[in-house]
Amino acid sequence: MPEEEKNLEDFVFDLDALHTIQDKVTNIFIYHSTNDPVVPYSQAKKIQSYLPQAKLITFTDRGHFNLPEFPELLENILHG
């Protein structure tokens, strides 16, 4: 992947290091909402391309997840 495509918008993150996560955990979940006004949904897809075993859980109405409760996250933590 070209170097300029390895950035996540306006913060730096080593996407190439993500593959090491898959060797250390059993389940990986990526949560993202398509109506997030801060981080574009395309960034979740980019991260998923580096973590092919990860499950991308997409919402349409959660914004940037500034929520008092997040039952789906709790469910995956408890039963992942």
Percentage of residues in strands: 5-15%
Number of helices: 3
Q: What's the β-strand tally?
A: 2
User: What is the end-to-end distance?
Assistant: 31 Å
Q: What integer is the average pLDDT?
A: 84
General form: globular
Largest sheet: 2 strands, parallel
Q: Identify the strand order in the major beta sheet.
A: 1-2
Provide a descriptive summary of the structure in words.
It is a single chain. The chain is 29% helix and 12% strand. The protein has 80 residues and is of the alpha+beta class. β1 (29-33), α2 (41-50) and β2 (55-59) form a beta-alpha-beta unit. The termini are far apart. The mean pLDDT is 84.
What is the topological layout?
Elements: H1 19-22, E1 29-33, H2 41-50, E2 55-59, H3 71-79
Parallel strand pairs: 1-2
Features:
single chain; alpha+beta; 80 residues; two-stranded parallel ribbon; 12% strand
Kindly summarize this structure in a few lines.
The protein has 80 residues and is an alpha+beta fold. The protein has helices at 19-22, 41-50, 71-79, and strands spanning 29-33, 55-59. The radius of gyration is 13 Å and the shape is globular.
